[in-house]
Amino acid sequence: MNHSPAPESTAPLRVAGARGRWTLLATVLGSGVVLLGSTVTNVALPRIGQDFDADLDVLQWTVNAYMLTLAGLILLGGSLGDRFGRRRVFVLGLVWFAVASLLCGLAPDTTTLIAARALQGVGGALLTPGSLAIIEASFHPDDRPRAIGLWSGFGGIGAALGPFLGGWLVDGPGWRWTFVLSAVPALLCVPVALRHVPESVGAPRKEAVVAVGAADRRRVGFDVTGAVLGALALALVTYALTEARDGGSVAVAAAVGGVVAGAAFLRVERRGSDPMMPPAIFSSRQFTAVNVITLCVYAGTGGFFFLTALHLQIVVGYSALAAGAAMLPNTVLMLLFSSHAGMLAQRLGPRVPLTVGPLVCGAGMLLMLRVGPDASYLHDILPALLVMGTGMVVMVAPLTVTLLASVDTSNAGLASGINNAAARAAGLVSVAALPLLVGMGPEAYRSDAAFDASFGRAMPLCAGLLAVGASVAFLTLRRSAAAPRPLHGHTHGWLMEPPLVSRFTRHQVVD
Prior knowledge:
Largest sheet: 2 strands, antiparallel
Strand order of the largest sheet: 1-2
Shape: globular
Organism: Streptomyces bobili
Pfam families: MFS_1
Number of strands: 2
Main location: membrane
Keywords: Antibiotic resistance, Membrane, Transmembrane, Transmembrane helix
Radius of gyration: 22 Å
Subcellular location: Cell membrane
Structural class: mainly alpha
Strand content: under 5%
């Protein structure tokens, strides 16, 4: 009797087919819940602080615990999917993320909330790399660009709706329901993925063959030690920055431990047989420069979005819904014009957009200095956000195009993963360090006058980080145009990090 799978179970998927549409739905929901975890929480922070009578450092950790595990483990998550099956790890990430989200919603105290947020980030790190890798591995080459475009576009729409829905829930049933908002689509996605998404494993990174019974399986390695050391270094540095305002030996010990863990991470990556961040990839001067620019611009924008969501509610007096809706222009601009900016970078070269974009973005941040207790949305807030959004449009897609042009096609996914992790880590450190640098005390968010003064000191620092990024771009990037790459995806709405590119795709993808 022939027990081979039916042809439809192994043939490449088509967008027009039922299984292809279900697979797209699963990957969109999977990446969407991670975006919700990044964007929804910011508008809920003041209410979380009020309900728990918590200091500012609790609000910082509510954001950073999630960003920490997501940034530290995202490369490992991709490697686990490549070795054990992308659908398997994707579904594990969905269940993990949903359970952690429910724990956040049920948290009786701040310690439980922060721990659950860290678990949320682990789930996000498991499912985020798999969502695009599944599309790349499953769809017919002729349909793959369209599938990626749909995945990117619907993901951008989800990013736009996140703060709006989060604000509506915070003002209505309460902030705990923002985490239910993240859990429900993740749980709904599980049966869809199990039934319709085909399983796949990654192409081997080594030629070693391991005998398993009568069959041979190629080994796809992954760097657990490097991932743990990298996450530990980020955690200790973040803790040291967050607790530094109180001083003491614990903060100093954490800072020293972070430096030691970082040095150990670099040593492991240099000497490891299968490092998740091979040092050889930094031999490209342009790749290194793009990552330095990424660190600067995403540190600035990460601090901006964290503080602005608070500022609109604490100082201007907006409800959570109004604060979430106020930020929509940034995402809408990205959705409408990001692909055009990517094509512009291909024609003009990287130097112009990556110099001009951060400067325009920084100008928008400085315009936010006009936003005080009596601010008008149309005359004060909207112009600042439009200027900043324009700057992000000019710089985000060209940043990815330039990154991909700096490495071989075979390393596109690895380069994208490193760049994405760098952006998340920059935002993490920024949220930890900015309140310290501007003298924002633990009670600052309870006083509109105190927070307004601190916000006024923070915006020039954020703008300064973008100016440094612009300077690096002007001084290091070559004038010549980037190598032509097809742009598979016409929209992009992610504000908090650059788009991921599948590490096994043969296409250079800008979403």
